[in-house]
TrEMBL record:
Homohexamer; trimer of dimers. It comes from Actinocrispum wychmicini. Keywords: Acyltransferase, Transferase. The keyword Transferase applies. The keyword Transferase applies. This is Putative acetyltransferase.
Length: 403
């Protein structure tokens, strides 16, 4: 078997192979080749697994993203995608060979973090990935959507909401999303080619959608909600807001829509205040509470010194990376929001797998939770609590981008 990189000439073979691996048939692209998920593929980052007689049996690819870290720092990240092996060639080492080849390539490109959306949770932990952001769906019956009267702060509404079709406001969506993702830990960039080629899920794809665009008091767009209405159910694909005022105004808009029985809001962060804003807390029914972005670190010292930190402290981490056959012990020292991370022979405070380090890296998973779960070993009293303080971010990480 050979693992080889792809080029633009391999696009049709690549797309056919990955669809066969998942038992699906490709959608029909638009006349200019857009409107399908693979329109944004970077074929110089793709891989094909080939049999000795030249038949493709596996695929993997990556996008060049920016990942927002705690502290508002933007880091280059490989967005792993289109990973598939034909059913006839599974459990023969094809996937492991592609994953190893891909991680080598990510490192060679100077990226210290890779991310993905896991189709199956059991697959990717063995390659060093850990769940790092989480998302929910909230369903609110329209007749129970009354907002509670705020007990503090200014209750007067500012700004306005304008309803547009998706085709009328692509530039606004692109600009607002980019402002949002730069301040939201866990968010990924959406390169212009995604919007231009209409690749991905709504509101990027050409699927017809209405968009509620919120503008601040000065008329500047600062939020949007992309939605559709069918069979008396209003479904919000994506809500993006650069502040709480815009988020609340958009929630009021979708929950106040006429001729609606239920409002379904997808991709709600677990710490979102929506349910608390309702007069009836139980009116917001949570479902599809699941992981979203998985994180894999490839250079522990570089990754830990790249992100921002809120608390000073010192921690010795003993990190095992069995897939790559690597092991390191590091002294993490944080002062005034900056970290230094260097090899050490001191006794460890915490011992953990690189996948667990990926889970706590963005601040969305408390180290103490993984200690209690038996994933991380704490070697001294207080080490888990200290790690919780150190790794927390200024806000919970969240990612809405599908890739």
């Amino acid at each position: 078997m050979e693992i080889r990189p792809t080029s633009d000439q391999d696009l049709d073979v690549f797309v056919d192979t990955v669809h066969t691996a998942f038992g699906r048939f490709p959608e029909t692209p638009t006349e200019d080749g857009g409107g399908v998920w693979w329109a944004a593929l970077e074929m110089d980052r793709g891989l094909l697994a080939m049999t000795a007689d030249g038949r493709p049996v596996g695929t993997s690819a990556a996008y060049s993203f920016e990942l927002t870290l705690p502290g508002g720092i933007l880091a280059p990240a490989a967005g792993v995608t289109a990973v598939g092996v034909l059913p006839s060639h599974r459990r023969q080492g094809v996937l492991s060979a592609m994953m190893r080849h891909q991680l080598d390539d990510v490192r060679a490109r100077g990226e210290f973090v890779a991310v993905l959306l896991a189709s199956e949770a059991l697959i990717y932990r063995r390659f060093g990935y850990g769940p790092a952001t989480y998302t929910q769906r909230v369903t609110v019956p329209r007749n129970q959507a009354t907002f509670a009267v705020p007990r503090s702060g200014d209750t007067s509404a500012t700004g306005s909401v304008e309803v547009l079709r998706r085709t009328e406001c692509r530039e606004i969506l692109e600009e607002v999303y980019d402002r949002y993702r730069r301040a939201q830990p866990g968010a990924l960039s959406r390169p212009h080619r995604w919007w231009a080629s209409e690749a991905g899920h709504p509101p990027i794809s050409p699927a017809p959608r209405y968009v509620a665009v919120h503008r601040d008091a000065d008329g500047v767009p600062d939020g949007y909600a992309s939605y559709s209405l069918e069979s008396a159910t209003l479904t919000v694909d994506e809500t993006i807001a650069t502040d709480d005022a815009a988020s609340t105004a958009l929630a009021r808009y979708v929950l106040g829509h006429d001729l609606v029985r239920d409002v379904v809001v997808r991709h709600v962060p677990p710490d979102h205040p929506l349910r608390w804003q309702l007069a009836d807390f139980r009116a917001g029914e949570v479902s599809d509470d699941t992981d979203w972005l998985w994180v894999r670190l490839l250079d522990v010292p570089r990754a830990l010194t790249a992100r921002g930190w809120l608390t000073d402290g010192e921690l010795v981490l003993d990190v095992d990376d069995p897939f790559l056959g690597e092991h390191g012990r590091y002294l993490l020292t944080i002062r005034d929001g900056k970290a230094d991370c260097a090899p050490t022979d001191r006794e460890p405070d915490l011992s953990l797998d690189v996948s667990d380090l990926g889970s706590i890296y963005l601040g969305g998973t408390a180290p103490s939770k993984l200690v209690r779960a038996g994933h991380i070993r704490a070697h001294r009293s207080g080490a888990a609590a200290l790690a919780d303080d150190l790794f927390r971010g200024e806000r919970a990480p969240h990612c809405v981008h599908w890739f």
